[in-house]
Amino acid sequence: MPVNAGDLPAKPCLVRVAYAGRDHVALWSGGQLNKIGVSLDELLRLTLGQMRAALEETVGSLDLDACELLAPVESQEVWACGVTYSRSREARMEESSSQDVYAKVYEAERPELFFKSAGWRVVGHRGEAGVRPDSTWSVPEPELAVLSNSRGEVVAYACGNDMSSRSIEGENPLYLPQAKVYDRSCSIGPAAVPAWEVEPSAARISMRISRGERTVFDGSGSLSDMVREPADLVSVLHAAYPLPVGAWLLTGTSLVPPPPYTAEAGDLISIEIEDVGRLVNRVVKVPHSGARAQPRMKRDSI
Predict the structure, then answer these.
(1) For 250-262, what is each residue's pLDDT tens digit?
(2) Residues of the domain holding 86
(3) In angstroms, rounded to a whole number, what is the distance separating the alpha carbons of residues 6 and 208?
(4) Average pLDDT of the residues in 165-184
(5) Residue 55 within any structural domain of the chain
(6) How far apart are CA 165 and CA 152, in angstroms?
(7) Is residue 189 included in any domain, yes or no?
(8) Which of 42, 96, 119, 252 could make a disulfide contact with 38, Cβ separation 3.0–4.6 Å?
(9) Do 76 and 248 meet the contact criterion of CB atoms below 8 Å apart?
(10) In the chain, which residue ranges form alpha helices assigned H by DSSP?
C-alpha cells in the first residue's frame, strides 16, 4: 500500500518501502523520508553504536506518495514467546487439556520460545492476516515486537500480530507449530522505532477488532505486566542460535479476546502501542488443501 504519513509513528523510525522497482530502507523523521544507503540486513550486522552512526548518513529523500509501505523485515527470522503474562497463562490453562504445562513454563527460568515466520512471509501494515479454515477458534494476539541485531542487542521495536488457532493448540500443546505457523499468520509494522528513541517497558498496548460497523473487541493493557524483560528473552534466543542478520521476537500477549469471538474473514484488527505505532490488518481465510493426517499404521511385532 502507498505510504501515508498518518500511518507512521510520531517518533523517528526505520521504514521499509518499495520505490521505483526496488526495496529501500529509509529513516522517517521530521516529516521526511530519507533513504539509507544500506539494507536492513546490512544494518543488523553492525553493533548498536555502528547502526546509530549509519542512520545519520542518509543518501537523499524519497517521495512519500510514490512509495509502497512494506513490512520492516528482510532476511530476519521471526520468533515468538508464550506465557509471558499472567492473563496468557490463565487463558491457555482454561483452553488446554494439559494445564500444568502452561503453569510450569510461566514460573520456569527457561522461557517458551518458538519459530513463527520466515522474513519473506511477514505481513505488513494494512496487509491481510490469515486464519486457518480447519481452526474452530482463531484469535489475533497483539504483542510488542523486538528487533535484535546479530550481536543480540535490542535495536528497535514495532507492533506485532501473532495470529493463532486456539482450538488446535488446545487439543494438544505439541500442535503449537500448526496453531502458530501458517500462511499470513504473522504481521509486524508499521515501522521499526529505534531503541534509543523509545522506552516501551510501561507503554499501553491496545487492540480493537471491528466487524463491519460493529466493534466486537476493544481492550488494553500495559507492557509493564510482562513477567520477563524483552532483552532477557532476546538473549535466550541468541544464546545457542546464530542470527547473522538479527531477528524479530514477538514477546507474548495479555489481550485475549474471549469466547465466543473467533476471527472471521473481513474483521479489521487494529493494534496500537504507545510511542511505537499502530498496526492494522484485515483478516482473510487462507487456502487449505483439506488434507488430514492418515491413521497410524501398527508396526509388526519384533
Answers:
(1) 999 999 899 999 9
(2) 77-285
(3) 18
(4) 94
(5) yes
(6) 30
(7) yes
(8) 42
(9) yes
(10) 40-43, 48-55, 86-95, 99-107, 166-171, 176-180, 230-239
- Please tell me the total number of residues recorded for the chain in this structure: 302
User: What CATH number does the domain containing 191 carry?
Assistant: 3.90.850.10
Query: Last residue of a domain, which of 44, 70, 96?
Result: 70
State the cell numbers at 264: 472471521
301 pLDDT band (50/70/90 cuts)? very low
Domain stops at, among 31, 52, 70: 70
Classify residue 156: in a domain, yes or no: yes
Burial class (CB in 10 A: 0-12, 13-18, 19+), 71: buried
Look at residues 212, 228, 209 and name the one whose alpha carbon lies nearest to residue 272: 209
pLDDT tens-digit readout, 220-243: 999 999 999 999 999 999 999 999
Phi, psi values for residue 216, rounded to 5°: -105, -15
Average pLDDT (62-89) is 90
